[in-house]
Predict the structure.
Amino acid sequence: MEPAATLDVAARSARFAEQETTRHSAVYTAWALGLSSDPETCALISTRPPRERQPNLVFAAARFVDPALVPADQTEPRPDEYGRFRDSLHAHWPEVVAVMGSHHTQTNEAARAAVLLPAVDKVVQNCGKPVALIEFGASAGLVLNPEQFRIHYVNRAGQPLATLSHDRVPTPVGEVTVRCLGSTACPQGFPQIGWRLGVDINPLQPFNPDDVHWLRTLIWPGQVDRLARLDAALEAFRRNPVRVLPRDITRPGVLDEVLRLVPRDVEPVIVHSAVLAYLEEDERAAFADRMLAAVAEHRCHWISNEGQQVVPQIADAFTTEFREGLRKGAFVIALDGVPQYQGDGHAGWIL
């Protein structure tokens, strides 16, 4: 995932197709490639602020305004796929602009918790006590209930390595499977989470039908398994609601405010996934500096799950071996600023 400040809509759309949608949504790949070679529509989108030029946001807003544009379960593009998108976008442009201005790409992929858990487990093992799991950019807070799922870690061949099932959850809301493609150690049980909190500039409400509609629209066409997982995560939230604090994480005082809320008997762990790419470059650098300072002062741990070049301080810490082993489009999971392993942005695998 690239920074939200990218200005060239055509180039950004081409990269979106090449690096993000190719293995996940044939429909969005067709839209992104079509957009990348459509100067008129690129010029139209370029009239919007940089934050609103993200292909993911543009596509979701178009679908939100025109629900009949593409079925959620459509796996293959139609012969006129891009033309349908283009015609709808131009016909509904004022409404699309309104949605882009009032909404964010707050995809709440609950499976990302399974990608984060190896790093969370490492913190628990090192500190010897439960953690306070605090997610920045939490959207509706659906990543904060991993114990409500049954999580399977399997090897390349699909053979089981570990299955996580909480004894206090006799009926998990759903199943999550993550392929472990390398030597990253997967947890043998759920790390102890003693307290949890979400933070988001615009928290979505799992009980609000409009917010749920937006969450469903953010899932790319053809990803029916992710829709099912979203429904399961919403059920998990109903079972165990988590507070999501409305705060702007780019403001320096927010981290201090959040850490003051944490009970003394738990170890604070700040996590975030696919969040910092939507900040301006200077905001990302300043955020990372604050996190590294807090880590150095032993005030918290920091687990980052972002695109390879999104956090400059983490990219600078890549070893030659780590850099050469990175997969195209993979996210990097770092603990306290140190790269640990890489993972699929949609939580299908870790390496």
